[in-house]
Every structure is written in structure tokens, then in C-alpha cells.
Design a protein that fits this description.
- The chain is mostly helical.
- Helices cover 74% and strands 0% of the residues.
- It has 19 helices and no strands.
- Helix 3 packs across helix 6, helix 8 packs antiparallel against helix 9 and helix 11 packs antiparallel against helix 12.
- The longest helix is centred in the N-terminal third of the chain and has 46 residues.
- It is globular, with a radius of gyration of 26 Å.
- The model has no long low-confidence stretch (mean pLDDT 90).
């Protein structure tokens, strides 16, 4: 009985309950050790000896942080001595000397962690492109592409390592002397596979408090876990066979089916990832640990920029804090902003440097998701949409004013929501396609050969889902949609449920459990979907 995901029987029926029992039996001061030990066991079960990469990352930021702190202490001591003696470097010179040393250590540790990620994840991609270039130049040589064993979750914990060492360098947090605290922060088992990407400052005390498991937390956490399982097992897994057929053989289908595949893949991706986040955050809630939310009703967004403020929130804030702002604050960017203000005005001037920083963010975002040109295109697609919207915003405001379109009206808001959702689906089509060329072919087919013939002749229901499957998915999506509407109106569905009478409360909970058991897509005839973001 393998434990390869949060949806496996081994995890839900054996590992998690056992951790809860052992955690409860331990005294408060030792509960952090239960979480750390169970996290390392969990990682070993899914990645085996590749745990060495996680341990290397932990050791690097532990000693790197201490090194940075010692340099800071040494700097203060040197400055104090310089004030008492004559001659030698000035305080300003000493600060620059030690700042450069701290910067070098920080850069070294950050590059080590990012370098591991790049080496393990992108070596085949880079070497494959070099081979194609050599072939195009008719050079009789080729690099042997190695098979890389990539530890699961490395894209997530590598970013956490960088955030920790950068925050220590910036003085946002003190260097942590206890390597166990860093280890637990890096590998806490609920968030190890797919995030969310946490900051040390927001997690440290929570992980080491050793709060006892309250009944309310157990109930609320379990409710969220079941809700996440519904998203994954009833929707994402049920859609998988249809999506696999469309994306593996796109030339066999008309544009209507391609469009349906794009919409359903976007739905699948959301249900898979947000469902996993429900399980992750629900598990954390059981232990009294509040992990950061990663989704906030993204399909109510009125622009692509707003969509990415609501989708994979912790990745977006990481890019903002550790790429966008640092790039924006570089001296050349400041000069570019000043130049822009003088020549193109106060609105467009800052967009020059902001656009450069935004380009870096979306190039990194595309590459972070995968090693392929379609992922780079995915990043550039969103960069173009967001930056283009910023450029044309003044013109759009004038057009709406001339046409008397009330931009704050409900109707206009609905149009913007539908438009944003359509643009997102197109982007996800390239994201899922087997390469950039395949994605472009699917897009052209969708635009030039769009028909509803597959619906009229019934062939749509022979691609991997019949009418009953579509109906079950529709019911589950409706449940998620109602839940999202309540959240959008600042109503917590679980709090609302907790205030209802016992028959209603338990009736709905057991109804959801039965819905998952009866209509979950597992067994003969279904192709289970590996957690999508675990592969990034």
C-alpha cells in the first residue's frame, strides 16, 4: 500500500490518523518532534534517498543564516573599535565591506538552492535544445541527455529556502540557530508536495507551539479534507480520460472539442490543485497550524492581473517580494524610471522599469512550472496580457467614457469575468499541450474549425466521458461554485454550517462523504490523475 499522495489510502487511513494519535500522546514540548519525524518519514516514503537534497537545502540555509548573522556581529564590533581608534577604515567603509560579504554569502546560498533545482529539473531541457541547435547547424555531435531523478516538492522547498536566507540578509528575521526548527519549516509534511510556499516568520511559532488537538479543529479540518477530496476524486479524476484523449490526439477533433478540452482542463487544474490545498490546509488546521491560503475564488476575477492575485497566491507573492521588487530597485531600473517620467510622463514612465521587472517575473513563472517552450510561452502570454492591460488602461477608460459604459456596473463586471476566464483557458491550453507546436496547432484548430458537430452527433460523449459523467461533474462544480459565492460574500461556509442544527450539520457532512464514495472516479475504467502541481 504505497503512500504517494495525500489521496492515497495509506496517507488518509493510516499515516495521518497515526500521526494525530502519536501527536496527542506526546507532551506539549515534544510535539514538534512528532511533526518533524513524521515529515521526514513522509518524504522518505514518496522520494526515498532523494531526501538528501532536502537535507542539503536545510543545512545550507542553517549555516548560511548563522554566517550572515556572525558577519553582522563582526561588523558591529569593528565599527565600535573604529570609533575608539584613529586611522583605518571609516564606519561607512566597514559597512560596505561587510554588506558585500553578507551579500556574497546570501547569493551563494540562494544560488546553491536554485542551482539544485535548475540542474535536476532543467538539464534535459537545456541539453535537448543544444542538441537541436547542433543538428540545425549540421554539426556532427550530440550531448548525451541524462535521466534526472527529481525529488518531489523541490520547486516549493527551494523557494522557501531562498525566502529564508533573503529575509535573514534583509534583517526581517534573525538567523535561526536551531536546525530542527528550520528542518520542520522546510519539510512540514502537509505542505511538502504542493505548497503553499510559506515564510519562516509566519510559520516558526505555530510549528513549535505544540497546541493540543481541539475537537473543533479536528471537525473543521476533516470537513475541508473531504471537500478537497470531492474536488479531486469526483471532478479532476473524472475529467482525466477526456482530457488525455483530447490533448494526446488533438488532430482527431474539431475546434469545439478542443475548446471543451481547454475549459475542462482549466477546471481540472483548479479542482486538483485547490482540492489538494483544501487537504493541506485542513490537515494543518487539525494541528492548530494556520497555513496561508493559496486560492481566493480566482474565477471571479475581472482581469488577468487580479486572477493571479487569487490563484496560487503564495507563489505570486514570492515572485513579487523576491524578484519584482529587487529588480525594480536596481540602480539601472531607477534611472530608467526617471528617464521615462521626463519623456513619457508620470503614468507611462514607471511602466518602463515595471515592465522589465514584470518580464523577469513571468519568465521565471513559466520556467518554474516546467521545462518546455510551452511553459515559457505560458509565462510570456500572461506577461503580454498584464503589461498590455497596464499600457492601454488610459485608452480603455476613455473608450468606456465615450461609449457611456459604466465600468463599475454589474453587467460590465460580468463581461470582464467571462473575458478573463476565456483568456485563462487559452493560456492553460498551451500549458497542458505536448509542446508549443502542439499548443499552436490546437489554438488554430479551435479558431478556424469551431463547430458543435460533436455535440449534435453525440461523439462528444464517447471521448472518455458519457452524459452521466458530465452530469456528475456539473453537480460537483455547482457545489464548489456555491461555496465560492459564499466566500466571495465573506461568508465562511463551515461557520455557517456550524450554526445549523445537528440534523442539518451532520446530514450535509455525511452527504458529502457519500457523494465522494459513490461518485469518486476510481476503480476500473478510470485513469487516476497524479497531483498536477506535484510535478512542478
Amino acid at each position: 500500500m504505497a503512500m504517494d499522495s495525500y489521496y492515497s489510502i495509506a496517507y488518509l487511513a493510516l499515516f495521518l490518523p497515526l500521526v494525530i494519535v502519536v501527536y496527542t500522546l506526546f507532551p506539549k514540548k515534544g510535539r514538534w518532534a512528532v511533526l518533524l519525524g513524521s515529515s521526514l518519514i513522509f518524504f522518505w516514503c514518496i522520494s526515498g534517498k532523494l531526501v538528501i537534497y532536502l537535507l542539503a537545502s536545510i543545512v545550507s540555509i542553517h549555516y548560511g543564516g548563522i554566517w550572515i548573522a556572525l558577519l553582522g556581529t563582526h561588523k558591529d564590533e569593528r565599527i565600535r573599535l573604529a570609533a575608539e581608534t584613529q586611522g583605518g577604515p571609516t564606519k561607512k567603509e566597514l559597512r560596505k565591506i561587510y554588506q558585500k560579504k553578507q551579500m556574497a554569502v546570501t547569493a551563494g546560498i540562494a544560488l546553491f538552492n536554485v542551482g539544485l533545482l535548475l540542474f535536476l529539473k532543467y538539464t534535459p531541457f537545456f541539453m535537448g535544445n543544444i542538441n537541436r541547435l547542433l543538428a540545425a547547424l549540421k554539426i556532427p555531435a550530440a550531448l548525451e541527455i541524462p535521466a534526472m531523478a527529481v525529488p518531489i516538492g523541490i520547486s516549493f522547498y527551494a523557494l522557501q529556502a531562498v525566502s529564508y536566507i533573503m529575509d535573514v540578509y534583509w534583517g526581517k528575521i534573525p538567523a535561526q540557530g536551531n536546525i530542527c526548527r528550520l528542518a520542520l519549516y522546510m519539510c512540514f509534511f502537509p505542505r511538502l508536495i504542493e505548497g503553499p510556499i510559506c515564510r519562516f516568520k509566519e510559520m516558526d511559532e505555530q510549528l513549535f507551539n505544540g497546541e493540543r488537538i481541539h475537537f473543533d479543529n479536528l471537525v473543521r479540518g476533516s470537513q475541508r479534507i473531504v471537500f478537497g477530496m470531492m474536488k479531486k476524486l469526483v471532478v479532476a479524476d473524472r475529467l482525466n480520460l477526456f482530457i488525455k484523449n483530447v490533448y494526446e490526439n488533438p488532430g482527431q477533433y474539431d475546434g469545439g472539442v478542443i475548446a471543451m478540452g481547454a475549459v475542462l482542463y482549466t477546471c481540472q487544474l483548479y479542482m486538483d490543485f485547490s482540492g489538494t490545498m483544501d487537504i493541506v490546509l485542513g490537515t494543518g488546521e487539525i494541528f492548530g497550524i494556520r497555513l496561508p491560503e493559496n486560492f481566493r475564488q480566482p474565477f471571479f476575477s475581472k482581469s488577468i492581473s487580479q486572477f493571479w492575485q487569487r490563484w496560487h497566491i503564495t507563489l505570486g507573492t514570492w515572485f513579487k517580494d523576491y524578484i519584482f521588487y529587487p529588480v525594480s530597485m536596481l540602480r539601472p531600473m531607477k534611472k530608467l524610471t526617471s528617464f521615462g517620467r521626463k519623456h513619457v510622463g508620470n503614468y507611462y514612465g514607471p511602466l518602463l522599469s515595471g515592465g522589465c521587472a514584470l518580464f523577469c517575473v513571468w519568465l521565471c513563472n513559466g520556467l518554474w512550472h516546467g521545462s518546455g517552450w510551452n511553459y515559457i510561452f505560458f509565462g510570456m502570454y500572461h506577461f503580454a496580457l498584464i503589461f498590455g492591460a497596464q499600457i492601454f488602461e488610459p485608452a480603455a477608460a476613455k473608450i468606456c467614457k465615450v461609449l457611456h459604459i459604466p465600468r463599475k456596473s454589474v453587467a460590465w463586471g460580468a463581461v470582464r469575468i467571462v473575458r478573463t476566464a476565456a483568456l485563462v483557458c487559452v493560456g492553460e491550453m498551451f500549458f497542458r499541450a505536448h509542446g508549443l507546436k502542439a499548443g499552436l496547432g490546437m489554438f488554430v484548430n479551435m479558431v478556424t474549425n469551431f463547430t458543435f458537430a460533436s455535440v449534435k452527433d453525440g461523439s462528444l460523449f464517447q471521448i472518455g466521458m458519457d452524459k452521466k459523467d458530465f452530469l456528475i461533474v456539473a453537480v460537483a462544480v455547482l457545489i464548489v461554485f456555491i461555496n465560492s459565492i459564499l466566500k466571495e460574500k465573506s461568508i465562511d461556509p463551515r461557520e455557517w454550517l456550524g450554526k445549523r442544527g445537528l440534523p442539518v450539520r451532520w446530514g450535509l457532512c455525511y452527504g458529502l462523504i457519500l457523494f465522494v464514495i459513490i461518485f469518486g472516479a476510481y476503480g476500473v475504467g478510470y485513469v487516476p490523475l497524479d497531483p498536477i502541481y506535484a510535478g512542478f
